[in-house]
């Protein structure tokens, strides 16, 4: 090993490292695992002055320090020709500097690196400050950004920076999830929480929130030097405490991290899993080496982070209860009035799970996303966002709301990249994550959240729907003195949920709710809805739209009435047979997506409901009088067999679970008894 490599200390450069060399050959760097590829005999003897590298990864740049007399205009071509082969042997980027100016070259073409505007890149690299680790945080971020742009832009035929590259770490997340699941045998959702925690840790490091002793790079250094036990010990005792400091818990006692495989319930390092922790850290670093940092995460990954794990058979039952397919969420958001919400307005998901409806509404609409831009050092949205989820004092019940907060952190990544001082991050924790998402620690959960004046302009939700146990829930509501808030008789928790939703809408406020078929044939509930609301939309979704159930579901669009007048406006009904992804365990994207045409039709309809006529065969518009006479709202039955055949729809065999089957039999028996009594 070279004396340089023994005596010289690596210098930190954000998530990268810098090493000043001199007498070290590329062959010696290869023996020390800095060089991963093969070298020719002539390349092995070359000696770079310095390298920028990713710990546990590859070399990203070769730096050559020259005298000013060597970097004159006349001599630069020969200097580049002499030193580009050194860089080309190990990376794409050659940086030449004389202490006063810096030249950036594509080692593959021996031509200058060009910025986005097509101008030669001349950003100065101050070697003295780099070696002394005296660069400002802004200078470090700029250096790392430029090196990364070169790494993904330069080719043998391209010298210019590409447009900003976004990263899709779906494959990484799935790979790490499988590692944790196979090695621990823990429940799939518990493995997911740990994937998300390390993802958040790496992301916060890459954007410059976690630096120095708290950074991902520090864990990598400890892993290489001292082993996985010391790395995990440091992560559990030092890094996680820093994350908690930057993102304090809300009133519900939850924050943005919640893994309990690498640490125990008390937060102490679980050293029995140190080896697995080391594998996970190496997997994240290998991904960084190949694809780059997580600073700019692809939006599709943000929106589908949790869904991707449902493609694993073992995870469907245990994870499926939390998720509404993203295409359904996005369609509901786009059909709603979210884009017109303004200061003083409010949006709620009373059964928020991991926060998809609220976060998609924020991501889809600039009027909502801009609410989280800091002003005068504060993060204070003028639009109220509320997401509630049920929990108890058990740690397991906290995790969904913690995932929602971590999910929001990822959604707001662009802001956090720009505003990441300790004060700003604590503002985001207080007035974004903790202000938006709330865990209600009781068996009743949201059903006990009855606050005077807590009314919303928009509610987007997919409430839980079960028949079994709903009676005991209703009893608990009555025992808690809340019965007057749920006066309507109805089966299943969905009957309670729709009452909560409607009673928490402002007059003129809208709700878009996923409901099961069982709700839409309960006469008392339908009369309650018609009494308090104007029905805008009923869209039938195909069987197995949701991961964990074959139950038939519908999108119900409502607007709360300002008076008791009967509905006169028509209702748009729509037949959806494909949702843009397969409805099997794989949940892969497919071209067929009737939700997009539903969005379009509803947009036209909303503009002129009384006059609009649709040519879409999947759309039927029912006049207010015609709609009022319906005994049920199972609108897919309004299409004849012949019409469905013409649309290419194969009649579905609708499956029901045992409790739903019992409820259907009970309904049939009641109907028969009533008929027999009338005939007697």
How is this structure best described in words?
Strands 10-9-8-11-12-14-13-15-18 form a nine-stranded mixed sheet. It has a seven-stranded mixed sheet with strand order 1-2-3-4-5-6-7, with helices on both faces. The chain contains 26 helices and 18 strands. The termini are far apart. The chain has three domains: 3-153, no CATH class; 170-313; 323-652, 3-Layer(aba) Sandwich (Rossmann fold), CATH 3.40.50.150. The radius of gyration is 30 Å and the shape is elongated. A hairpin with a 4-residue loop joins strand 5 and strand 6. By secondary structure, it is of the alpha/beta class.
Map the helices and strands:
Elements: H1 3-7, E1 11-13, E2 16-20, H2 26-31, H3 41-44, E3 50-53, E4 59-65, H4 76-90, E5 93-97, E6 102-106, E7 111-112, H5 127-131, H6 137-153, H7 170-184, H8 188-206, H9 216-225, H10 228-246, H11 274-291, H12 299-304, H13 316-320, H14 326-335, E8 346-349, H15 356-364, H16 366-369, E9 384-391, H17 399-411, H18 413-418, H19 422-436, E10 437-441, E11 456-461, H20 470-479, H21 492-503, E12 505-516, H22 523-532, E13 533-540, E14 553-560, E15 571-575, E16 579-581, E17 589-593, H23 594-607, E18 619-622, H24 624-628, H25 641-646, H26 658-679
Parallel strand pairs: 4-5, 8-9, 8-11, 9-10, 11-12, 13-15
Antiparallel strand pairs: 1-2, 2-3, 3-4, 5-6, 6-7, 12-14, 13-14, 15-18, 16-17
Helix pairs in contact: 7-8, 7-11, 8-17, 9-10, 9-11, 10-11, 14-15, 14-23, 17-19, 21-22
């Amino acid at each position: 090993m070279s004396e340089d490599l023994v005596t010289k200390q690596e210098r930190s450069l954000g998530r990268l490292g810098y090493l000043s060399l001199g007498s070290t050959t590329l062959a010696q760097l290869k023996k020390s695992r800095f060089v991963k590829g093969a070298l020719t005999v002539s390349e092995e003897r070359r000696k770079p002055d310095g390298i920028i590298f990713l710990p546990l990864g590859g070399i990203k740049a070769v730096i050559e320090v020259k005298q000013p007399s060597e970097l004159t205009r006349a001599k630069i071509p020969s200097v580049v020709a002499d030193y580009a082969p050194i860089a080309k042997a190990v990376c794409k980027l050659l940086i030449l500097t004389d202490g006063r100016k810096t030249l950036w070259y594509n080692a593959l073409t021996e031509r200058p690196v060009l910025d986005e505007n097509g101008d030669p890149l001349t950003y100065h690299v101050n070697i003295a400050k780099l070696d002394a680790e005296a660069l400002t945080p802004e200078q470090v971020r700029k250096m790392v950004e430029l090196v990364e742009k070169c790494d993904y832009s330069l080719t043998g035929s391209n010298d210019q920076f590409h447009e900003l590259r976004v990263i899709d770490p779906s494959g990484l997340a799935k790979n790490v999830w499988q590692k944790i699941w196979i090695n621990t045998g823990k429940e799939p959702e518990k493995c997911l929480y740990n994937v998300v925690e390390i993802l958040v840790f790496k992301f916060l490091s890459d954007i410059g929130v976690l630096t120095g002793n708290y950074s991902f790079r520090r864990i990598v250094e400890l892993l290489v030097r001292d082993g996985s036990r010391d790395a995990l010990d440091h992560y559990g005792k030092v890094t996680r405490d820093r994350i908690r400091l930057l993102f304090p818990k809300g009133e519900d006692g939850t924050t943005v991290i919640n893994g309990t495989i690498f640490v125990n319930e008390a937060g102490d390092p679980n050293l029995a899993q140190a080896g697995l922790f080391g594998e996970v850290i190496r997997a994240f670093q290998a991904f960084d080496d190949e694809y780059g940092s997580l600073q700019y995460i692809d939006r599709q990954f943000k929106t589908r982070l949790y869904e991707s794990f449902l493609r694993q058979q073992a995870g469907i039952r245990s994870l499926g209860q939390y998720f509404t397919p993203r295409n359904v969420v996005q369609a509901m958001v786009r059909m709603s009035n979210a884009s017109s919400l303004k200061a003083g307005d409010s949006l709620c998901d009373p059964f928020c799970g991991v926060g998809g409806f609220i976060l998609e509404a924020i991501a889809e609409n600039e009027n909502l996303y801009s609410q989280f831009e800091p002003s005068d050092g504060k993060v204070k949205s003028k639009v109220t966002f509320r997401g509630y989820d049920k929990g108890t004092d058990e740690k397991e019940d906290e995790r969904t709301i913690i995932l929602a907060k971590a999910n929001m952190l990822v959604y707001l990544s662009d802001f956090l990249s720009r505003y990441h001082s300790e004060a700003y991050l604590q503002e985001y924790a207080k007035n974004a994550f903790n202000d938006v998402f709330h865990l209600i620690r009781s068996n009743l959960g949201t059903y006990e959240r009855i606050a005077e004046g807590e009314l919303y302009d928009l509610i987007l939700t997919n409430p839980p729907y079960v028949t079994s146990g709903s009676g005991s829930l209703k009893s608990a509501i009555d025992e808690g003195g809340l019965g007057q808030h749920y006066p309507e008789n109805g089966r299943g928790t969905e009957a309670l949920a729709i009452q909560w939703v409607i009673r928490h809408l402002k007059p003129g406020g809208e709700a878009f709710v996923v409901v099961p078929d069982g709700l839409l044939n309960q006469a008392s509930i339908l009369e309650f809805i018609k009494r308090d609301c104007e029905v805008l939309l009923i869209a039938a979704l195909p069987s197995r739209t949701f991961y964990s159930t074959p139950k038939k579901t519908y999108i119900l669009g409502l607007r709360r009435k300002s008076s008791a007048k009967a509905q006169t406006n028509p209702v748009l009904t729509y037949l959806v047979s494909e949702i843009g992804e397969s409805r099997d365990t794989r949940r892969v994207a497919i071209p067929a997506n009737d939700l997009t045409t539903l969005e379009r039709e509803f947009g036209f309809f909303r503009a002129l409901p009384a006059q609009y006529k649709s040519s879409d065969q999947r759309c039927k518009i029912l006049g207010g009088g015609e709609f009022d006479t319906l005994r049920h709202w199972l609108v897919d039955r309004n299409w004849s067999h012949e019409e469905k055949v013409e649309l290419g729809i194969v009649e579905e065999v609708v499956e029901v679970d045992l409790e739903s089957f019992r409820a259907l039999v009970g309904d049939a028996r009641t109907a028969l008894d009533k008929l027999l009594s009338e005939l007697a």
